[in-house]
Amino acid sequence: MNTEGLSKADVVKASAVAEQAVEELAAPEPVVAETVSEAVVEEPVVAAVEQVPAPAPLPVPGLDDSSLYIHRELSQLQFNIRVLEQALDESYPLLERLKFLLIFSSNLDEFFEIRVAGLKKQITFAREQAGADGLQPHQVLARISELAHEQVGRQYAILNDVLFPELAKHNITFIRRRFWTTKIKAWVRRYFRAEIAPIITPIGLDPTHPFPLLVNKSLNFIVELEGIDAFGRDSGLAIIPAPRLLPRVIKVPEDVGGPGDNHVFLSSMIHAHADDLFQGMKVKGCYQFRLTRNADLSLDSEDVEDLARALRGELFSRRYGDAVRLEVADTCPAHLADYLLKQFNLSESELYRVNGPVNLTRLFSITGLDSHPELQYTPFTPVIPKLLQNSDNLFNVVSKQDILLLHPFESFTPVVDLLRQAAKDPHVLAIKQTLYRSGANSEIVDALVDAARNGKEVTAVIELRARFDEESNLQLASRLQAAGAVVIYGVVGFKTHAKMMLILRREAGEIVRYAHLGTGNYHAGNARLYTDYSLITSDDALCEDVSKLFSQLIGMGKTLRMKKLLHAPFTLKKTLLDMIARETALAAEGKPAHIIAKFNSLTDPKIIRALYKASQTGVRIDLVVRGMCCLRPGIAGVSHNIHVRSIIGRFLEHTRVFYFLNDFDEKIYLSSADWMERNLDKRVETCFPVEGKKLIMRVKKELESYLSDNTQAWVLQSDGRYVRSSPTGNQNARSAQAGLLEKLTNPPLSVR
């Protein structure tokens, strides 16, 4: 997409997803309990589950018809487009809008590294196989290329024509070369010669210097030269790799650039002084480029004896995987772009010309400027429930009642404090913990290290293959082992994605179990950014189930029967299908039937077919799916009772909550698993019930607040488009995240 000369209005008009109002039924304002003990108890809401009568008989496709399914990669790309749309939303603070645009970049990088790379691999090895949607990999790649080129063009248009001008009004500037003053030019020259030139190693290209092996997503320059060097070489081309340790954005001192936060790009500095690197040669052109490679690990854990050692080797190889995308400056001549494509064995459709820095994610350093708090979200303090605020012993509190926390509105600190207390408590005998994404130096790992050093029996089940956290997990494994903890790498062939902790404590001569189960990771940083549930419990049956699951992960043996806990890959999927089937049977009897489910992704064909069948029978189905959704709602005779929405806001929606009306004996489950084949069939996952009328009603109200959101919701149409919701008529603006912040944080704040 050619973005040159686009105005702000043009950029908005170019939006691939129309931001138009969606008429919604008026819903009551959500009511959220401020603490566990203050949850409001109400009777089940029956009106919300009235079935929509099936329309007049029409030709209805069979449930295996490919037209009923959306390709998962195309759905994921649509999610990323919704993220980019937030950069145009003026209700967000300006630097947060920039952050959304950079998240789009980061997500797109990973999309090419993993998803596009996987599709290309299928074609390379002649393993093309259509999914439920009927599309072959080469067809999907063609559509991805079309969408990605369009959206990358929009991204740079939004950056250059909307965000940069708005930032300049607040004295935050990114000065392009053509606007450098004499003073700035002199400062850049000094900075380049002192800080950049000594570190850079340009590589001339000739038979003894073949094209270098470039690291994935690294910043590089191709330089066209004229002249003959000291050895008589005149190949005319060179490559300048920019070392990763160099900052990509450099602040200009105020005595040079004037007042405010003025910056220049590293790429501009190198471009301006490339001739310093090739003495006696004439630089005809210097153009930045970046290569994206396949970053998916090909490690087969069944074929290795030492998973950790093999993984270290794969991590090195990841930096040099097969090329999947080439980004170049939009000023790069065609013959140089073609030369680069040939070097990387890429086609023209895999070339992306950009009007700005090729590595936008390095701009994240700007989004947290201390000098501009007014351009960022208002800080908030996650609340600690009142019953925990004055308690010196969490075990005493948890022994009396379950503690349910909704992060980030409620603090993650009680989870960390529970582990810290366990590490020091002389009555605690053992701690067992799963770790997926935690960070080697996190508070959770610190507490486990302290516990091991204090003589507790500490066992950590660490998933080494958590994508892009493999290196961090290897480090934390080494750290825990050094402290004396037992470290297990999970189960061969299955990623351990379950989030659970078990503490064994001697009380009155008996061993008592305490457990934590969550929908998200043991990562205090993420707990401030992601929405997730935590349940801390001493329930005998549930804690026994957690103990059994740890035994399965750590030892050997047959699948153990659980009392309350559902777990993949054994009972979770079957139970979900059974619960959907029960609602279907109730609807067939003419009884109210309702399913509400919230998760990150819905791709499992069996689950989707079960939902279609339930819809056909009259079950009301409300889905809140943040990312990928392969189901098509609103198709007459098939999915006319299914409604799908995606919430994009300040916090990353990460909770997995499943509600079933169940003939008014309401059931709510929280889970670590999305409704994907990957999670339900190929991972170790947990799903646990919410029990007690107060907690059930609390979670239900919180879940319903997402169904009434009319400001941050995107509603999925039957043709695969997402349309942004907005208040209509006399409706009040409602945001689920804003409502939860107002109800649960201290002091009360709006989401924006």
Brief sketch in words of this structure:
By secondary structure, the chain is α/β, with parallel strands linked by helices. The chain contains 20 helices and 27 strands. Among the domains are: 8-30 and 65-73 and 568-744, Endonuclease Chain A (Endonuclease, Chain A), CATH 3.30.870; 202-247 and 271-365; 386-558, 2-Layer Sandwich (Endonuclease, Chain A), CATH 3.30.870.
Structure description:
The chain has 752 residues and is an alpha/beta fold. Among the domains are: 8-30 and 65-73 and 568-744, Endonuclease Chain A (Endonuclease, Chain A); 202-247 and 271-365; 386-558, Endonuclease, Chain A. The chain is 34% helix and 19% strand. Strands 14, 18, 19, 20, 21, 23, 24, 25, 26 and 27 form a 10-stranded mixed β-sheet that branches. Strands 10, 11, 12, 13, 15, 16, 17 and 22 form an 8-stranded mixed β-sheet that branches. Strands 2-4-3-7-8-9 form a 6-stranded mixed β-sheet, with helices on both faces. Strand 19 (594-599), helix 17 and strand 20 form a beta-alpha-beta unit. The radius of gyration is 28 Å and the shape is globular. The model is unreliable at 1-48 and 747-752 (pLDDT under 50).
